[in-house]
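Quick one, probably user error.
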C-alpha cells in the first residue's frame, strides 16, 4: 500500500482513473452530461467510463473497474451506489472520489464534500488550487442472521458498509417510499412516508451489548452509525467517519409520538449536540438482539435480521476530501 501522499501524487500526476456514474439516481439522469463536461474541463482523464443504467449490475461492474488497476475511482450517484463502491474499494490501494447525485447524500455530507456538482468536481482535482486531498476514513462491518449475501469468495467485502445500520420503521420507509415522490420532493419524501406508516408500526425491545454489558430499551427506531449524517441531517457536531467509533442511538421510546418528537429534535439539534451525551452509546463493537426479530437495513438494503453484530474498521477506505477535512 502506498502512503496517502504517494497515492495523492500519483493521482495528481494523471494516474489511472475510472468513472462509475449512476444515470438512474435522482440527479444522475439530469446531470450526467454536465458532469462529463465539467470533469473534462477539470483535466481529469478517465481510462474508462461506466454509465450505470441497471443498478442491479453494480457488483459485476466493479469487477471490471478493479481489473483496470486504477489509482482513483470516481462514483456519481446516491448513497446506495456509493455504499456498493465502498465494499469493493475498502482495504485497497485505490482512492474513492464521490459526486453526490442522490437524494440524501449522507456519505458525501460526512466527508464534508460540496454538494453542488462544480464544487465536488473541484475537490476531485487534487494537486490544483481548490483541489482536495487523499484521506483515510473508517468503514463498518456487520454480520446478521439469515443474510442472503456474504458467502463464498470475497464474502468479507459483502459485510462492509459505509454509513449506517438501522432497525425499525426506517426499514419499512426504505421499502415503501415512492421513487416518483423522491424525484419530485427529494428528502421530504422519507418523512412523508414515515408519517403514513408510523400509526401501524409496532414498537420492539432491543438488547444492546457493549463490552460485556447489556442494556435493554424499547423503541420504534434504532440506528448504528459509522458516518456523521442520517437522512441528510448531522447526527452530532463531533460525529465523523474518521473517529474509530460507531454511534448507537434510538429515536424515541415505545410511544409513537415520542418517535416523531425525537426525530424533530434530531433534525433541529444535531449540529450542536455531542456524542458524549446520554442519547448516544459509542463503541467499536456492538451486538444487538431484538424481540421480536427485526429486519436489518444496511445502507438502504435489507440484509437479514437480528441478532446482528457490528464492528468498526478504522482507516480502511481511501477517499478524496476537501483540504479542510480533519484526517486523523
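Nope, works fine. Designed sequence:
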Amino acid at each position: 500500500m502506498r502512503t496517502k501522499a504517494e497515492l495523492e501524487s500519483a493521482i495528481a500526476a494523471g494516474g489511472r482513473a475510472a468513472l462509475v456514474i449512476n444515470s438512474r439516481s435522482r440527479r444522475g439522469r439530469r446531470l450526467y452530461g454536465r458532469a462529463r463536461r465539467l470533469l473534462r474541463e477539470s483535466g481529469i482523464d478517465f481510462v474508462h467510463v461506466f454509465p450505470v443504467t441497471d443498478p442491479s449490475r453494480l457488483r459485476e461492474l466493479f469487477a471490471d473497474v478493479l481489473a483496470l488497476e486504477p489509482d482513483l475511482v470516481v462514483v456519481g450517484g446516491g448513497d446506495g451506489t456509493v455504499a456498493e463502491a465502498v465494499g469493493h474499494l475498502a482495504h485497497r490501494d485505490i482512492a474513492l472520489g464521490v459526486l453526490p447525485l442522490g437524494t440524501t447524500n449522507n456519505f458525501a455530507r460526512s466527508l464534508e464534500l460540496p454538494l453542488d456538482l462544480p464544487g465536488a468536481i473541484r475537490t476531485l482535482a487534487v494537486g490544483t488550487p481548490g483541489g482536495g486531498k487523499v484521506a483515510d476514513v473508517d468503514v463498518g462491518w456487520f454480520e446478521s442472521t439469515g443474510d442472503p449475501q456474504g458467502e463464498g469468495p470475497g464474502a468479507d467485502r459483502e459485510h462492509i458498509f459505509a454509513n449506517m445500520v438501522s432497525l425499525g420503521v426506517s426499514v419499512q420507509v426504505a421499502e415503501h417510499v415512492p421513487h416518483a415522490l423522491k424525484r419530485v420532493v427529494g428528502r421530504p419524501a422519507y418523512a412523508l412516508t414515515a408519517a403514513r406508516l408510523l400509526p401501524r408500526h409496532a414498537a420492539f425491545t432491543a438488547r444492546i451489548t457493549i463490552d460485556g454489558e447489556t442494556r435493554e430499551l424499547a423503541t420504534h427506531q434504532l440506528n448504528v452509525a459509522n458516518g456523521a449524517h442520517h437522512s441528510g441531517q448531522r447526527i452530532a457536531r463531533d460525529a465523523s467517519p474518521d473517529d474509530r467509533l460507531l454511534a448507537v442511538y434510538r429515536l424515541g421510546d415505545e410511544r409513537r409520538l415520542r418517535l416523531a418528537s425525537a426525530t424533530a429534535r434530531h433534525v433541529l439539534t444535531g449540529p450542536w449536540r455531542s456524542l458524549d451525551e446520554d442519547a448516544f452509546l459509542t463503541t467499536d463493537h456492538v451486538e444487538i438482539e431484538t424481540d421480536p426479530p427485526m429486519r436489518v437495513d444496511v445502507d438502504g438494503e435489507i440484509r437479514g435480521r437480528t441478532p446482528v453484530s457490528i464492528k468498526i474498521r478504522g482507516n480502511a477506505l481511501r477517499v478524496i476530501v476537501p483540504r479542510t477535512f480533519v484526517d486523523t
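The chain has eleven helices and 17 strands.
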